[in-house]
Amino acid sequence: MTSSSAPGKIILFGEHAVVYGQPALAVPVMQVHADVEIADSPRAGIWISAPNIHLHAELNSLPSGHPIASVIHNLFFVLNIDPFPNLQISISSSIPVASGLGSGAAVSVALIRALSSFLSYPLSDEQVNQFAYEIEKLHHGTPSGIDNTVITYAKPVYFVKGLPSPGRRWAGGEVQILKASKPLTIVIGDTGVHAPTKESVSDVRKLWEADKAKWEKVFDEVGEIAKNAREKIESDEWEKLGELMNQNHALLQNMTVSSPELDKLVTAARQAGALGAKMSGGGRGGNMIALVEPEMAEAVSSALKEAGAKNTIITTISP
Ligand code: MEV
Fold first, then answer.
1. What does the domain layout of the chain look like in residue ranges?
2. Which fold is adopted by the domain 184-317?
3. What digits encode the pLDDT tens for the residues 83-136?
C-alpha cells in the first residue's frame, strides 16, 4: 500500500490580481489535508472510494472530465501505463470543498504522488507541481498556479505567475519560499458558503475585459501591497502587515469578490482585536483570515463564531 497527504492553503495577499501577473503570498494550512491510499485490488478495474464526496465507483463509470478521473487518466497517459492495473484508491479529506482552502489542488497533489510512487515512477516536486497545474487548468479555467504550488511544496510562498527567471520557474510561475523571522498567527474563519473559485475568477475577467485600464490599476495596487507585505513579514512588522490586509480586502471588495458574510466576519475579527483581516482565496464565500497577536487568537476565534463562522482554525506560520 502507498499513501500520500497534502495540506490545505490560504492566500495571505494578492488573490485574483495574481492571475494577471501580480505577486501573491500563500501559506500551507497543515491542520487540514487530503489523504490518499492506494493498494492492489482483487477486483478488476480501478475502484475509487471518496466518502467525503459520496463517491464509490469504478474509474470507467466516471465522466472523463471528473476531477479524480482526469488525474488518473492523464497521469497514466504521461507515464505510459497500459494496461491499467487493478487498484483500490481511497481518498479522504478534511479540507472543506469550495471554501478557498485548496481542496481540489490538495486531492490532485496527494493522488499524483501516491499513484506515481505506487507505480514506481516517483516524481520530483517540480513534476508533481507541473502536473497538478495542468489539472487545475482543466477544471478552473485560468488559474495562476499558486494553489498547486503552495500545496505541492507545503511551504509559505511568494509567487509570480509566468515571470521569466532570475528565480526558478515552476508550474508556469516563479516561486520563492517566504521566510518570516518570527511565527505569524492567523485565525481562519469559514462562512460556510460554498463558492467555486472558477466563477469569481471568471467574473473578475469580465470586469477586466470591460475596462482593462481601470482594473489593471487595481491589480497593480494589489501587487504593491503583496510586495510590501513580503517585506513586513520578513521584518516582523505585524501591525503594518495587518493594515495591508485591510487595504487588500477593500480592493477585493471593489473587485466584487467579497460577500456580506465575508465582510461581517472581517469586521468582527477587527473589532475583536485582530491586527488586520481580509477574505482569502476566490471569495464570494469560503474563508477569511485575520492576523493576530498569539494571545488574541482565542478571542478572535470566538468573535468569529459569534458573528456566524461555521468553523475556525488557528494556524501558525513558522519561520
Ligand atoms: C484562488 O486560491 C486564488 C485565485 O487568485 C485564483 C488563482 O490564482 O488561480 C482567486
1. 2-177, 184-317
2. Alpha-Beta Plaits (3.30.70)
3. 999 999 999 999 998 889 999 999 999 999 999 999 999 899 989 999 999 999
Judge whether 215 and 120 are in contact, CB under 8 Å: no
User: Could you tell me the three cell numbers for 65?
Assistant: 472530465
Q: Which of 178, 177, 186, 140 has the alpha carbon at shortest distance from 16?
A: 140
Band the pLDDT of 43: cuts 50, 70, 90: very high
Active site residues: 147
The residue among 240, 312, 306, 243 whose CA lies nearest residue 277 is 243
**Pocket lined around ligand 1, Cβ cut-off 6 Å:** 11, 15-16, 18-19, 143-144, 146-147, 197, 201, 281-282
Amino acid code (one letter) for 202: S
CA–CA distance, 188 with 184 (Å, rounded to integer): 13
Sequence-ordered alpha helix ranges (H) in the chain: 67-78, 103-118, 125-140, 146-153, 197-210, 212-234, 238-254, 260-271, 297-306
Residue among 189, 190, 184 nearest 275 (CA)? 184
Residue 119: enclosing H or E segment and its boundaries? none
Pocket test for ligand 1, best of 11, 133, 157, 248 (most atoms within 8 A of CB): 11
Q: Which atom of ligand 1 is nearest to the CA of 146?
A: 8
For domain 2-177, the CATH class is alpha beta
Q: Contact at 8 Å (CB) between 49 and 89?
A: yes
pLDDT, tens only, 216-230: 999 999 999 999 999
Which whole number is the average pLDDT over 273-279?
Answer: 98
Q: Tell me, in angstroms, the distance from the centre of ligand 1 to residue 57's CA.
A: 30
User: Which of 9, 10, 12, 18 gets mutated to test ligand 1 (max ligand atoms within 8 A of its CB)?
Assistant: 18
Q: Please give the distance, rounded to the nearest whole angstrom, from the Cα atom of residue 304 to the centre of ligand 1.
A: 24
| DSSP letters spanning 138-153 | HHHSS--SHHHHHHHH
